[in-house]
Amino acid sequence: MNEKKIAKSIKLVKKGDQSAFEDIVEYFQGKVFAICFRMVGNKHEAEDIAQEAFIRAYINIQSYDENRKFSTWLYRIATNLAIDRMRKKKPDYYLDAEIQGADGLNLYAQIPDDGRLPEDEVESLETQSYIQKEISELPTKYRSIIALRFIDELSLKEISEILEIPVGTVKTRIHRGREALRKKLRHV
Amino acid sequence: MNCNREVTELMHQYLDGDITKDEEQTLRSHLRSCEACQIHFRELKRTVALVTTNVDLQPSADFTKNIMAKLPKEKRRSTVRRWVRIHPLVTAAAIFFLLMSGSLVSVWNQEDQLSYPKGMNLVVENDTVIVPEGVIITEDLEIKNGNIKIDGEVQGDVVIINGENLTASAGNVAGDIKQVDQMFGWLWYKIKGLTQEVFGLEK
Q1: A134 and which of A21, A145, A184, B71 could share a cystine (Cβ 3.0–4.6 Å)?
Q2: Among B16, B37, B53, where does a domain finish?
Q3: Keyword Membrane: yes or no (chain B) (predicted)?
Q4: Residue pLDDT, tens place only, B160-182
């Protein structure tokens, strides 16, 4: 599946062909899901938001301008939904709450036990959930920037279009977000 | 450790790919001489690597299916349109066939069916409609696809479409006798000719 084929599918969806939307979902689901996951830090919720984003994109497909990049438009819908969700949610870190990045694992499981899993697997899983936890503790505005910058390696200009903020602000936030993460992750 | 913010800024610019050749040179020469900044830079690069490697995030397997099931129902018109778009040839053939068979059937009916007004004491023998002796028809008489033989009396006009008047004498018709089989024959010929042309048949 390439960009050209996607552009064709988008045209078909605009003309009312619902089945062509399946190609679009298949193509973008990984990225959209990953961005949402980085922002909300929970697999179940991320999937919920990603799904909502695709459904909204379908309903509002007529307002998409074909001269612009589809991913920018789609990511904006997804990040707006995720930002809304994060604002509504109070920061809560319960010991039995699901920990970000480790699906199905809670903090009890995070506490080192007798180590039945292979050593490196445990470590990578722990590292991943630790990284996600650190990201989740950043303020919302840095989280969305980090999600967009490090999942799809989007350009500064694209990020500025998605979040509707000036490029200068994007730069500042990436720098500060990266600096904050450096301090949190230097011991990993 | 307290190198100026300018250097840190350059590191970020470098990581963003947003740096000029000169600035990159400045950064490199500073890093060579400053260990603290080297560590800082290494930590930043590692942070980026840590955050970026975790991209094997995938939604559940039935993600797409769930979305497709939740989409609002497509309009019926679109379904037909899509079908037409996917099978243009089949659609064209189907429409053509429908129209052709429709016209053929109507032509067929016209050719075969003898039609005459009912309830007027008319007698039919083979394809000839007979007005028997002693019968008086006060209205107009229209016969399609058949001949007419008037032994009785017709007070109105007689119209014969695609048929002949077999009456011995014209005296017992008060109105006009019109024979339109010539025009019909011409029409019929045209339709038949067109059909043969289209289907490429000999006869």
Answers
A1: A184
A2: B53
A3: yes
A4: 877 777 776 655 777 777 776 65
- Is the pLDDT at B113 greater than 50? The verdict is yes
Structure tokens at A182: 């450096």
Q: Are strands B141-144 and B158-161 parallel, antiparallel or unpaired?
A: parallel
Asked if the structure places residue A72 within a domain, the reply is: yes
Domain span at residue B175 reads 115-197
In a domain, B177, yes or no: yes
Residues in B touching A37 (Cβ below 8 Å): 57
Would the pTM of this model clear 0.90, i.e. be above it? no
B71 and B123 fall within a common domain: no
Residues of A in contact with B59 (CB under 8 A): 29-30, 33, 46-47, 50
B119 within domain boundaries: yes
Instruction: Name which of B16, B63, B75 is nearest A156 (Cβ-Cβ).
Output: B16
* Chain B contact present for A130, CB below 8 A: no
B124 and B191 fall within a common domain:
yes
Partner-chain residue, chosen from B40, B58, B78, that has the shortest CB–CB distance to A30: B58
On whether ipTM exceeds 0.90, the answer is no
Q: Are B114 and B132 in contact (CB under 8 A)?
A: no
Nearest CA in chain A to B12: A175
